[in-house]
Amino acid sequence: MEYLKVFERFDPPQGFIKTTVNPNMDGSTKAALNRKGNVLFNAGDAEGARRIFLTTGYSDGLSRVGDYYKSQGQVLDALKMYWIAPDRTKADPIIQQLSEIIRHFINEGETDG
């Protein structure tokens, strides 16, 4: 898989790679993994839960991981989880805040010139 070589320079990986290839798993396997993710999340292992929920595409779990990140002040990581979930009701306010910050810096640069 040659496309994986592109990401070798990222050690450890700090982001996520979203692909269009869905894992081939049956419903019972997906449910079992989601239960394991919920157990990890409830035990305080948000990262372990995140990996499982990304694999299974469990939107509620991803949204809860996003809530955790947001509570820890990791707003961009929260936005990633909300976007993948997709949970626009939680993603949109963050996007709006980021837009306002960018708008402020653009306007500030215009007045300095």
Word description of this protein:
The protein is an all-alpha fold and 113 residues long. The chain has a single domain (25-112), classed as Tetratricopeptide repeat domain (Serine Threonine Protein Phosphatase 5, Tetratricopeptide repeat). It contains 5 helices and no strands. It has helices spanning 27-42, 46-56, 59-71, 75-84, 88-112. The protein is elongated and about 60 Å long. The mean pLDDT is 85.
Principal-axes shape call: elongated
CATH architect. name: Alpha Horseshoe
CATH topology: Serine Threonine Protein Phosphatase 5, Tetratricopeptide repeat
| CATH homology superfamily name | Tetratricopeptide repeat domain
Q: Count of helices?
A: 5
Summarize the structure.
By secondary structure, the protein is mainly alpha-helical. The protein has helices spanning 27-42, 46-56, 59-71, 75-84, 88-112.
Task: Please name the defining characteristics of this protein.
113 residues, mainly alpha, Serine Threonine Protein Phosphatase 5, Tetratricopeptide repeat, 5 helices, 0% strand, elongated
